[in-house]
C-alpha cells in the first residue's frame, strides 16, 4: 500500500514536522514555568536575607526536579510514547506555579520571611518538572525522524525550546512594570495552563506507539511503522531501556558532556541575573535582559545551527571545539572587570554551550540506538543535574570572597570545560577506531 493508504487504514495521525513542532512547543511551555523563578528569588532575597549558599540552592531548586525526573520520564517514553509523560510533567509544573502564585498573592511582600524558605523551595521543585519534559521530547522527536536527520531535528527541538527563559527574560521587565510581581506570576500560570491544553489536544506519538496503543503486536506495529519510514524503535520496557543504556559506557561519557553544557546552561540562566546585578550594579530588568539576549536566547538559537554542524562534521569534533569555546569565555569572565569584556565572555560561553548541547544529542541515538529514551533519561537527567549542583558552588564563592566571588566562581566552568574536552576527544578517537 502507499503511504497515504497505510495512514488512512490504521487511522494514524501526525507526521514528523508536526511531531517536532508539538514536542518543541511543549518543551518551550514547560521551560517557561521556571523563567520567572530565578528573577523572583532576588526579590525574595531582599526580604529573607539569605546567605549565598541558600540563595544558590533556591535558584537551583527547579533544576533538581527538572534534572532527576528526566531519567524515569525519558525512559518511560520507550514504553508509553511521549505524550502521556509530557502531560504529567506539565501538570506537576502547573501545581508548582499555582503554589508560588498563591504565596505571592497572600504573603508578598510583608509575609515573606526566611521561615517560608522550605515551602518556596518545594513549589520551586514542582515548577521545575516542566524542565524535565526535555528528555521526553528528545526520544519523542527521535522516533519521528531517520538517523541522518537526527542532528538538525534535535537541534531545532532543543534550540527553540530552550529559548523560553530568554524570551520570557526579555518580557519580564515590562510585565513587572505593567502588572507587578504577583500579577505577572498569575499571567505566567495562565500561559502554562493554556499551553498544556494545546499540547494535550494536538500532540501525537510516532506511528509505532499509535499502532501499539490500538493493540497491534510489537512485530506488526514495527513493520507497519517501518513501511512509513520510522527507523528507531524502543526496547519496549522502561526498566529495560534504562538497563540497556546504563550498560553502555558511552552513555556515561555523554552524561559528563551534558553536565557541563546543559547543566551549565541551566545554572547560568538562573545565576547571570544575579551576577550582573551584584557584580556590575545593574538593575534587575537590565540584568534579566543581558541574561536573555547575551546568553539564553543566543545559546538556544546557536543550538539549532550546532545540530547542522554536528550532522556535517560529526558530533565528536563539534563537541571538542564547543567546549574549548566555553573554556575561553569562562576565563574572560574570571579576569575581566570591564563590563563590555564581561558581556563578550557571556556571549562566548553561550555560543559554546549551545553548540555543545546539539552535539551531545546528535550522539545519543548514534551510540545507544536500541534505547534512545533510556539514554536520553540518563544523559538529560544527570547532565542537567549540573543546573542544581553549580549555583550553590557559585554562591559559596561569594560567601568566601565577597563581591570578587562573582567572577572567581567561573573557575568552576574552566574545570568542567577542560574535563568535557578530554571526554570529547575520547569519544572522537573511539569513533575513528
Automatic annotation (TrEMBL):
The chain crosses the membrane at residues 20-40, 52-73, 85-108, 114-138, 159-179, 185-202, 252-272, 284-305, 317-335, 341-364, 376-394, 406-427. SUPFAM superfamilies: MFS general substrate transporter. One of its GO terms (molecular function) is nitrate transmembrane transporter activity. It is a multi-pass membrane protein. It holds the Pfam family MFS_1. Its main location: membrane. Keywords: Membrane, Nitrate assimilation, Transmembrane, Transmembrane helix, Transport. GO terms for biological process: nitrate assimilation. It is found in: Cell membrane. InterPro entries: MFS, MFS_dom, MFS_trans_sf, NO3_transporter. One of its GO terms (cellular component) is plasma membrane. Residues 19-432 form the Major facilitator superfamily (MFS) profile domain. Belongs to the major facilitator superfamily. Nitrate/nitrite porter (TC 2.A.1.8) family. This is Major facilitator super MFS 1. It comes from Acididesulfobacillus acetoxydans.
Amino acid at each position: 500500500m502507499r503511504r497515504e493508504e497505510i495512514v488512512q487504514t490504521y487511522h494514524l495521525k501526525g507526521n514528523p514536522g508536526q511531531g517536532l513542532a508539538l514536542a518543541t512547543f511543549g518543551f518551550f511551555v514547560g521551560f517557561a514555568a521556571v523563567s520567572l523563578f530565578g528573577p523572583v528569588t532576588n526579590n525574595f532575597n531582599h526580604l529573607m536575607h539569605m546567605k549565598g549558599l541558600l540563595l544558590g540552592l533556591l535558584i537551583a531548586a527547579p533544576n533538581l526536579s527538572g534534572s532527576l525526573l528526566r531519567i524515569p520520564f525519558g525512559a518511560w517514553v520507550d514504553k508509553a510514547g511521549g505524550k502521556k509523560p509530557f502531560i504529567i510533567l506539565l501538570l506537576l509544573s502547573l501545581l508548582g506555579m499555582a503554589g508560588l502564585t498563591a504565596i505571592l498573592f497572600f504573603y508578598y511582600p510583608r509575609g515573606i520571611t526566611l521561615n517560608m524558605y522550605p515551602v518556596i523551595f518545594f513549589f520551586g521543585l514542582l515548577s521545575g518538572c516542566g524542565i524535565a519534559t526535555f528528555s521526553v521530547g528528545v526520544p519523542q522527536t527521535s522516533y519521528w525522524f531517520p538517523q541522518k536527520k537526527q542532528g538538525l531535528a534535535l537541534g531545532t527541538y532543543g534550540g527553540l525550546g530552550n529559548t523560553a527563559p530568554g524570551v520570557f527574560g526579555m518580557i519580564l521587565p515590562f510585565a513587572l512594570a505593567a502588572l507587578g510581581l504577583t500579577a505577572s506570576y498569575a499571567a505566567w500560570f495562565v500561559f502554562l495552563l493554556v499551553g498544556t491544553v494545546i499540547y494535550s489536544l494536538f500532540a501525537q506519538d510516532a506511528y509505532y506507539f499509535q499502532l501499539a496503543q490500538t493493540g497491534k503486536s510489537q512485530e506488526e506495529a514495527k513493520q507497519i511503522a517501518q513501511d512509513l519510514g520510522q527507523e528507531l524503535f524502543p526496547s519496549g520496557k522502561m526498566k529495560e531501556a534504562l538497563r540497556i543504556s546504563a550498560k553502555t559506557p558511552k552513555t556515561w561519557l555523554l552524561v559528563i558532556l551534558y553536565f557541563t553544557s546543559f547543566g551549565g546552561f541551566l545554572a547560568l540562566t538562573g545565576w547571570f541575573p544575579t551576577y550582573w546585578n551584584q557584580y556590575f550594579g545593574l538593575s534587575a530588568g537590565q540584568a534579566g535582559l543581558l541574561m536573555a539576549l547575551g546568553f539564553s536566547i543566543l545559546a538556544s538559537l546557536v543550538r539549532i545551527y550546532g545540530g547542522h554542524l554536528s550532522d556535517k562534521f560529526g558530533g565528536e569534533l563539534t563537541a571538542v571545539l564547543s567546549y574549548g569555546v566555553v573554556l575561553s569565555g569562562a576565563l574572560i569572565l574570571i579576569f575581566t572587570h570591564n563590563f563590555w569584556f564581561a558581556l563578550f565572555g557571556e556571549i562566548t560561553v553561550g555560543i559554546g554551550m549551545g553548540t555543545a548541547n546539539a552535539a551531545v544529542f546528535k550522539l545519543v541515538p548514534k551510540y545507544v540506538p536500541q534505547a534512545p529514551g533510556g539514554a536520553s533519561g540518563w544523559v538529560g537527567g544527570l547532565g542537567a543535574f549540573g543546573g542544581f549542583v553549580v549555583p550553590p558552588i557559585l554562591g559559596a564563592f561569594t560567601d568566601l570572597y565577597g563581591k570578587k566571588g562573582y567572577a572567581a566562581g567561573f573557575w568552576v566552568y574552566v574545570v568542567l570545560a577542560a574535563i568535557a574536552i578530554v571526554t570529547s576527544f575520547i569519544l572522537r578517537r573511539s569513533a575513528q577506531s
